[in-house]
């Protein structure tokens, strides 16, 4: 599902930029669209790396005698992923509620 969104992301960023300029909302100027798309890619890659490292650490901390993760380790990795998703969702909701129109640079 995540892979399906990758080709759409640059267009969504471009539409956000274009809409931001028209609506005087937060955004980047059109000349900086390449930087915005690149920064999005860097953050996406870093987020995936951090999430993988946290899940891997949880699984490695709960190994059975034969070297496979236990059900507790799998449950903990899933719980940490759910907590991370909820934290991001809450941050986005708070930003949307408290966000105010800011002029573009």
Task: Describe this structure as you would to a colleague.
The chain contains 4 helices and no strands. The protein has 105 residues and is mainly α. It is elongated, with a radius of gyration of 19 Å.
Task: Indicate the percent of residues in helices.
Answer: over 70%
* Main sheet attributes: strand count, strand direction, barrel closure: none
Number of strands: 0
Mean pLDDT: 80
Q: Unreliable runs, pLDDT <50, ≥5 residues?
A: none
Order of helices and strands: HHHH
Helix vs. strand class: mainly alpha
Q: Using the CA coordinates, give the radius of gyration.
A: 19 Å
Helices, by number, come to 4
Give the CA-based shape.
Answer: elongated
End-to-end Cα distance, whole Å, is: 34 Å
In what range is the share of β-strand residues? Answer: under 5%
């Amino acid at each position: 599902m995540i892979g399906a969104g990758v080709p759409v992301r640059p267009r969504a960023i471009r539409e956000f930029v274009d809409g931001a300029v028209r609506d005087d909302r937060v955004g980047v100027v059109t000349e900086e669209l390449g930087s915005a798309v690149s920064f999005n890619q860097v953050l996406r890659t870093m987020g995936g790396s951090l999430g993988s490292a946290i899940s891997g650490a949880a699984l490695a901390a709960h190994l059975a005698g034969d070297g496979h993760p236990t059900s507790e380790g799998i449950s903990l990795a899933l719980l940490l992923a759910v907590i991370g998703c909820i934290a991001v969702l809450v941050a986005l909701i708070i930003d949307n509620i408290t966000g105010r129109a800011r002029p573009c640079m």
